[in-house]
Design goal:
This protein has 28 helices and 12 strands. It has 730 residues and is of the alpha/beta class. It has a 4-stranded mixed beta sheet with strand order 9-10-12-11, covered by helices on one side. Strands 1-2 form a two-stranded antiparallel ribbon. Keywords: Ligase, Phosphoprotein, Transferase, Ubl conjugation pathway.
Length: 730
């Protein structure tokens, strides 16, 4: 609604904008908020980091303020008395629509948004109450929503009066710390739907700049207040910030904005404010919106490696990088960073091997540039373990696999086959390394004690090699596993440091052993006498090779009864025992195996859920999407054989569709970018129609003879994909 009056509007407000630049120059030059030291705080809650440098091993934790502060804060100024209610305002709007006379509505908007005091007078639930706690912002959310919903349907002069009032508020001289009324005003102004319009971006940018420059103490209040906002409004504000960043990076009409050199602070300010919403979202379980809703796909099109290198070089300096705020970077973009970082490490290691060879006056060999793994199918696990243990120094080279006695050349397909077969054997129940839980359809580490945990290290190395070489694996670990894998994300220098231990909850146990977790949940909610009715102690029992063994959850646990008072501690210790302590040696070996290949600062950018997607891909098959992105060689997509093919494939069961994908690509999982990233190709095979289809898994290519009818094609295709182990060489 503001497009038509944009130029006149900003020519009118230009002096205000200039004044903002002058008055806020000091604030704008600060890239990190100042810290407010508050002594003697009790009951402090932990908050996710906001403006963080994720390269630090000890990530910044930001303490939230308690409900009541012992340190003095500025007194709230006297608020004007405003008595208009939601119903009064709605009646005024209806009368204005009917009569065309908007004076009353215009007066309300121009008065309400004229200053921060007036905003509080209109929208504070009780002007006589301070509302100085993080639990209650004191904002009448319903009134705010009604006023903003009506705003975009009012005449231009009404909308302009709101923007002019906001500018007046932003121009106010700040002589000390912000009051809670100021923070309320910021919280309300962020919800203004006018800021979705590019013609308001100059004003929006200055609002974001002021919020980003607030102290950490003030940020805590905004974070906790934001988590109380409805999902719809929360998502709108996040989308508005993402759009602001995107359009500043790639403006559709560059003339609408000041030159980039004069507003380099726009994007950092918006990103820091977005970090507040991300922190608020992380405080809620389940979160208000998905973590993927914070992704900005526009960043997929910038120089990501420059961002990554700047972050590596400058770290916690004043130089801004999106890598300082990894929640905004999509999983596809993070995959690109990890792949390129892996490629650079591969090239560096290969170059060093070549230099070492030449310096010793030895003849260079092309094989020295790769991690060459030779295995027998009949001794797959033992051969793989021996090869990886013997070639530790080569783990960061490009992987090439050879099956002894087979003529296949590894252009990627043999590697996929090796991963698939090895994972299948290692995770077989008879092998004893992992336990499969039918209720949750996932594997978990066996707690059986053994003398050698090298095979767990092998599985970790396999996962690392898969990420490093961009291979997806069919591994079904629970999310808790990936959380442990990033604890810590960088291998500590001191090998005595505990690794793979993270905070675990009953929710984590539900994802692995739902029946046991349900029983513990029932214990927590039991209303009777726990000690007399359950007769349990702080002790657990496990069966190992037919022998029942007992373990105390705390010193003298076998003598401590579980009561109504200590049952929460019992459940927490029980969960910690199952997911951390009982499998510590197994998981530590797994952790070191993974990081022996994937040691990279790029891991600091990833959430546990994103690690899982990189390792396993997506199990969701969309064959229609594959059909849309398939390329053809020797065929047209309208050819009869191709039409037969897709009719058959789209009618397959999920199991047969997975077999087809495995037959053609070497994996039955979908990569991060979806089916389009497979670059799947169907080529015409100039052979007899008596032949079965063939595949070049290195190139994700299916060779299909021109079968005469659908029945023949379906029969030959099912035979081919159901008997697809082993490689030949044409």
């Amino acid at each position: 609604g503001l497009e038509g009056g944009a130029k006149n509007q900003f020519s009118t407000f230009s002096k205000f904008i200039t004044t903002i630049n002058q008055k806020k120059e000091g604030i704008g030059n600060r890239n990190s908020p100042t810290q407010l030291v508050i002594p003697n705080i009790k009951n402090v809650r932990d908050l996710p980091p906001l403006c963080l440098d994720v390269r630090q091993k000890q990530r910044m934790s930001i303490d939230t303020l308690p409900q009541e502060l012992k340190a003095p804060f500025p007194p709230e100024p006297f608020l004007p008395i405003r008595t208009k209610t939601v119903k009064d305002f709605q009646d005024d709007v209806e009368k204005s629509k009917a009569s065309g006379d908007w004076k009353a509505v215009h007066y309300f908007y121009s008065t309400t948004f004229d200053s921060f005091l007036e905003i509080n007078a209109a929208f504070k639930k009780d002007t006589n109450s301070p509302f100085n706690t993080i639990e209650d912002s004191g904002i009448d959310a319903k009134f705010v929503n009604v006023v903003y919903d009506a705003l975009l349907n009012t005449p231009q002069d009404v909308q302009k009066s709101v923007l002019k009032g906001i500018i007046n508020g932003l121009l106010q001289e700040w002589t000390g710390p912000r009051t809670k009324d100021d923070l309320r005003a910021y919280c309300i102004l962020l919800q203004n739907p006018q800021f979705s319009n590019t013609s308001t971006y100059v004003i929006y940018a200055h609002l974001l700049r002021q919020i980003a420059a607030l102290t950490e103490a003030d940020h805590h209040f905004l974070v906790h207040w934001s988590k109380k906002i409805s999902q719809k409004r929360f998502k709108q504000m996040v989308d508005r910030l993402l759009q602001f960043i995107s359009l500043r990076l790639f403006p559709a009409k560059p003339e609408e904005f000041p030159p980039m050199v004069k507003c380099t602070w726009w994007i950092p300010s918006a990103t820091k404010v977005l970090a507040l919403f991300n922190a608020a979202n992380s405080l809620i379980s389940p979160p208000i919106i998905s973590y993927m809703d914070f992704y900005n796909s526009t960043l997929d099109h910038i120089d990501l490696m420059e961002e990554y290198h700047n972050w590596q070089c400058y770290g916690n300096s004043h130089r801004f990088s999106f890598c300082q705020y990894p929640f905004i970077i999509s999983i596809a973009a993070k995959k690109v960073i990890i792949q390129r970082d892996s490629e650079q490490q591969m090239i560096s290691i290969a170059r060093q091997s070549l230099v070492d060879k030449v310096s010793r006056r030895q003849k260079p060999d092309m094989n020295m540039l790769f991690l060459n793994v030779k295995v027998r199918r009949t001794h797959l696990v033992s051969d793989s373990l021996d090869e990886l243990a013997r070639k530790k120094a080569d783990l960061k080279k490009k992987l090439k696999v050879t099956f002894v006695g087979e003529a296949g050349l590894d252009m990627g397909g043999l590697t996929k086959e090796w991963f698939l077969l090895l994972i299948r054997q290692i995770f077989h129940p008879d092998y004893g390394m992992f336990t499969y839980h039918k209720d949750s359809h996932c594997h978990w580490f066996s707690s059986f004690k053994c003398d050698n945990y090298s095979e767990f290290r092998l599985v970790g190395a396999l996962m690392g090699l898969a990420v490093y070489n961009s291979i997806t694996l069919d591994i079904r670990f629970p999310p808790c596993c990936y959380k442990k894998l990033l604890s810590p994300p960088i291998v500590p220098c001191d090998h005595n440091t505990v690794v793979g231990i993270c905070d675990v909850t009953l929710d984590d146990l539900f994802q692995i052993m739902p029946e046991l977790a349900h029983g513990l949940s029932e214990l927590l909610s039991y209303e009777g006498n726990v000690e007399e009715d359950f007769y349990s102690t702080f002790q657990v029992f496990q069966e190992e090779f037919g022998v029942i063994k007992s373990y105390s959850l705390k010193p003298n646990g076998d003598k401590i009864p579980v009561t109504n008072q200590n049952r929460k501690e019992y459940v927490q210790l029980y969960v910690d025992f199952l997911l951390n302590k009982s499998i510590y040696k197994q998981f530590a070996a797994f952790y070191y195996g993974f990081h022996s290949v994937c040691a990279s600062y790029a891991l600091l950018l990833l959430r546990p859920e994103e690690i899982e997607i990189l390792v396993c891909g997506s199990p969701e098959l969309d064959m229609s999407a594959l059909q849309r992105s398939t390329q053809y060689e020797g065929y047209q997509k309208t050819d009869l054989t191709i039409r037969y093919f897709w009719d058959v494939v789209l009618g397959f069961s999920l199991d047969l569709q997975k077999k087809l994908l495995h037959f053609a690509t070497g994996s039955d999982r979908v990569p991060v970018g979806g089916m389009a990233d497979l670059n799947f190709k169907i080529s015409k095979s100039e052979t007899s129609t008596n032949w079965l289809p063939m595949a070049h898994t290195c190139f994700n290519q299916l060779c299909l003879p021109p079968y005469k009818n659908k029945k023949e094609l379906k029969q030959k295709l099912i035979i081919g994909i159901s008997n697809a182990e082993g490689f030949g060489l044409e």
